[in-house]
Amino acid sequence: MWIDTHCHLDAHEFGADSLAVAGRAAEQGVSMIVIPAVERGNFDVVAALAHAAPNASYALGIHPIYVPQARDEDLALLRTAVEAALGDPRFVAIGEIGLDFFIPMLCEPAMREKQERFFREQLRIARDFDLPVLTHVRRSQDQVLKHLRQIAPPGGIAHAFNGSEQQAQSFIKLGMHLGFGGAMTFTRALQIRRLAAGLPLDRIVLETDAPDISPSWIHPARNSPEQLPAIGAALAGLRGVDPAEISAAAWRSSLAALPRLAALVAE
């Protein structure tokens, strides 16, 4: 059995196919898909989709790419939405939140400041409600680590990790898990593959980030949670172990990173 810890199943690329995709993933052994929100406009959408698909759960947050158009009152709305969702067993985390210093517009001084302000406030929400975080860390590992040290949530996942060994160890020391997916299936991704092969297995979780970050065998086609078992097999190949060992280890790591999932997958 597998858990896809990060999948934008509500994305427009899936169209009306989201539930069918989730169903096909379940047939492949993907027992749970975590769907993160990206802005206030899809808080209700991800929650509804998680309730419509038997093998889905959701997170609430404001993605750094959506920060430019976000308003300060969106943070208050998020806090209210999170408090209301605490009684929903399919709600598992705060996310997707973080920092993106790859897109030029987001690197402008005023926008960097706004990103960091939104990230810090969302970390406070996670800390206040004792919830893990799904963090976006594109070219921002050290800055994300700085804020995690200052406003420590109870763990979570550094999504699509692509940092150094030292940065990976810093996330682990802060109680975070590291998300690996399609990127490690490319032979040219030497650093990611070295980390996937060598980091403690109990700190690795698997993800697709579908519809993005397609694995090498379908790139550049739309990614899907159906690909997660093959991604797990790729990790098994890098580590020289049986895919069943990766499945079991990633399952345990996912539940450690996102404790509210435990009750769902036990149903």
From TrEMBL:
Keywords: Hydrolase, Metal-binding. It comes from the Bacteria. A divalent metal cation 2 binds at residues 136, 159. It holds the Pfam family TatD_DNase. A divalent metal cation 1 binds at residues 6, 8, 96, 209. PROSITE patterns: TATD_3. GO terms for molecular function: hydrolase activity, acting on ester bonds; metal ion binding. Belongs to the metallo-dependent hydrolases superfamily. TatD-type hydrolase family. This is TatD family hydrolase.
